[in-house]
C-alpha cells in the first residue's frame, strides 16, 4: 500500500488536500478529501438584519455569488411566507445568474481542467503564425510556461497531437475574453460583477433600459456563437479522444444524484428550466424540493466541529473543535436520509433524464451513455457543456419575454410588501448553482438573524465520511482509480477537478486579527 497525497489540489477554487491509498496493482483502495479551510461566514450573520445576508453570503465566492444572493433572498422571502415574485423580477434574476453560468462553464473547462488532458509542451514544435501560440512556444522554450504546463508529467491519456493541443490552447486564450463578456452581460442587469447588487428580498432593484437590453442581447449572441462553435465541440471532441478514460470507469461515483431545481419558469417558483429531483441507487425517489429539504442533515463526526453543530441546517452551527479525535476536514458531511449524494451538472443531467425531460442536449447525453460513456470524469465535463445549450435556449426565451413585458408597460420589479422580514420565523432558499444544489436556511428572531445555514454544492461533493463510516462522493469516485505512477497521480486530479470543487464556497474562512488557524505545507 502506498499513501499518495495531493496537497493542495491546484486549479480549483480554494485549498483541498486529497489523500489516497494505492495498492500494489496501482489502484486506489481508499480516499480522504480534506478541506483545509474553515467557514465562519454564517456566524457573521447572527444578530444582523436578515436582508444583509444577500450581500454577505455573496462574498463567499467570486463565481457563484449571485446564486448565493438569490438563495439568501429566497430564504427571507419564504420566512415572510411567500414564494410569489413579480414576473419581471423572476426573469431578471434568471438572466443575471444564468449569464454568470456562461462565464463559469468555459472557465472550468479551459482554465481549470482541459490542461489535465494535454501535453502542452508539444507547442515547442509549433510552426504556425498565431502570435499568441508563438508567444507560448517562447515561454515553453524558456521554461516559463506555468500555469499552462500540467503539474504532473504527461501520461498515457495525455493528448500530444500538435494540432489538437494548438487548438485547445488557442481557445484557452479566446475563452478568457469571452468570460469577460459574459460577466458584462450579468453586470448590465445587476449593477456590477462578480458580486451583483440587484437581487434583494422581494425582487430586484434595477429595471434595465432598452439600451442595456440591446447590449445584453448582442453579447449573448456572441456567447451563443462561442458555445455552439468552439466550447461544445472542444469538450465533446476531448471526450471522444478520451474514450479509454471513460470506459475504464475513471471517476464513477455513487449513483445518487440531487437537483433542487434551477431557474423558475413561473411566478410562484414551482416549475424550473432545470428540473428538481433526487436519485438514490439509480432510481428517482423524489421530485419535490420541499420534501427533499426536510430530509437533509449534516453529519460532523469527521469535521472539526462540535458535535452539536450537525443536524438539519436550521439548527446547525459553526463552532470549531480543532483537536477533535478522528476529524480530518473542515467540511461537514451533508446527507439525504443518510445517503451521500453527488450534485452538479452530471446530477442535473441524470435527474432530467430520469424525469423524461425532452431537449436535444439531454438526447445527446443519452446517446453518449448508450455508446458506453460511464458516469465518470469525462461524463461530468460532457454534462456541464451540454447543459450550456439548455441554458442558452432558456435565456433566449427569458430575454424575449422580458422585452415583451416591458414593451407592454410592465415595470414591476419588486414587491415592497415582501421587503420587511417577519419579526420571527424561518425560511429556506433552494436553487441550482453552477456546481450543483445550493441551500440557505435562515432563522429570524426579534427581527434579527438568529441562525443561518449554508449547504453549498461543493460541501455535498467534497464531504468526508459520516458517523456510519460512509465516504463522500469525491472520495467514492476516487476508489478504483488507476494510478500507474504514484509520483504522477494525474488521474486523481482529473477526477477531483471533474467535480469543479470550490472550497471557498464549501468552507470559507475568517481569521480575526490574522490569527493563524492552520499551517499548510505545500508538497
Ligand atoms: Ni465558489 Fe459555488 C457554485 C456555490 S460552490 S462556486 O456553483 O454555491 O460549490
Overview of the structural elements:
With 523 residues, this protein is α+β, with helices and mostly antiparallel strands. It is 41% helix and 15% strand. The chain is built from 16 helices and 16 strands. The strands form 6 sheets. A 4-stranded mixed sheet has the order 10-9-6-13. It has a 3-stranded antiparallel sheet with strand order 1-2-3. Strands 14-15-16 form a 3-stranded antiparallel sheet. The radius of gyration is 22 Å and the shape is globular. The model is unreliable at 508-512 (pLDDT under 50). Bound molecules: NI-FE active center. NI-FE active center (NFE) is lined by residues 13, 61, 63-64, 67-68, 433-435, 438, 456-458, 502, 504-506.
Unreliable sequence segments: 508-512
Shape: globular
The CATH superfamily of the largest domain turns out to be Cytochrome-c3 Hydrogenase, chain B
CATH architecture of the largest domain: Orthogonal Bundle
The proportion of residues forming helix, as a percent range, comes to 40-55%
Termini Cα gap = 20 Å
Rounded average pLDDT: 93
- The strand count comes to 16
Query: What is the rounded Rg?
Result: 22 Å
